[in-house]
């Protein structure tokens, strides 16, 4: 029997699985002992995971127990830790500071509020009027009043728009 026929005899499908150099089946082929091997593999993996978790826990405990604790500065009171919350932005101008007590000051404050309210109402009416769409000066001041609402921009809307 020459080398070629010997190799063919080993690989022959009629003879079953090909044999390794030691005359046994390769280790990746199924065997009768496979269920025991599978159970053994599962148990070894579970044991390794459990021992790894125990090792991590023990290392953490030892580090917490034997490492010197760092001295941390005392915490400030909770009110000082928070940053002041800015008021939400609004399109309305800031209200005028309170005037001195007296009926004259209160009347002036009422007139200013009434004037501002009239300007806002006129601006809203100017936005709804389709005739103002063709007036470039009116469009400019409407945009100015929308982006940066001031009494001056509202007065310009009232003066330039119909």
Describe the fold and architecture:
The structure is a single chain. This protein is mainly α and 162 residues long. The protein folds into 3 domains: 1-28, no CATH class; 31-68; 103-160. Helix content is 58%, strand content 0%. It has 6 helices and no strands. The chain has helices at 3-11, 34-66, 78-81, 103-128, 136-147, 151-160. Helix 4 packs across helix 6. The longest helix is centred in the N-terminal third of the chain and has 33 residues, at 34-66. The radius of gyration is 44 Å and the shape is elongated.
Fold blueprint:
Elements: H1 3-11, H2 34-66, H3 78-81, H4 103-128, H5 136-147, H6 151-160
C-alpha end-to-end distance: 115 Å
Biggest beta sheet attributes? none
Order of helices and strands: HHHHHH
Rg over CA atoms: 44 Å
Shape estimate:
elongated
Tally of DSSP β-strands: 0
Structural class: mainly alpha
**Overall pLDDT level:** 75
Enumerate how many helices there are, as a single number: 6
Number of domains: 3
What amount of the residues lies in strands? Answer: under 5%
Helical residues, percent: 55-70%
Low confidence ranges: none
Provide a concise account of the structure shown.
The chain has 162 residues and is an all-alpha fold. It contains six helices and no strands.
Which characteristics define this entry?
mainly alpha, 58% helix, single chain, 162 residues
């Amino acid at each position: 029997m020459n080398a070629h026929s010997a190799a063919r005899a080993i690989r022959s499908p009629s003879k079953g699985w090909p044999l390794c150099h030691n005359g046994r089946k390769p280790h990746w082929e199924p065997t009768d002992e496979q269920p025991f091997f599978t159970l053994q593999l599962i148990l070894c993996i579970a044991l390794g995971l459990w021992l790894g978790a125990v090792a991590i826990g023990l290392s953490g405990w030892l580090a917490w127990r034997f490492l010197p604790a760092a001295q941390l500065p005392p915490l400030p009171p909770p009110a000082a830790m928070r940053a002041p919350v800015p008021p939400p932005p609004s399109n309305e101008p800031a209200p005028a500071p309170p005037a001195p007590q007296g009926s004259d000051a209160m009347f002036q404050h009422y007139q200013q509020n009434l004037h501002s309210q009239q300007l806002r109402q006129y601006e809203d009416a100017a936005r709804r009027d389709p005739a103002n769409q063709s007036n470039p000066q009116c469009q400019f001041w409407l945009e100015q009043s929308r982006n940066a609402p001031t009494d001056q921009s509202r007065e310009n809307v009232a003066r330039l728009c119909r």
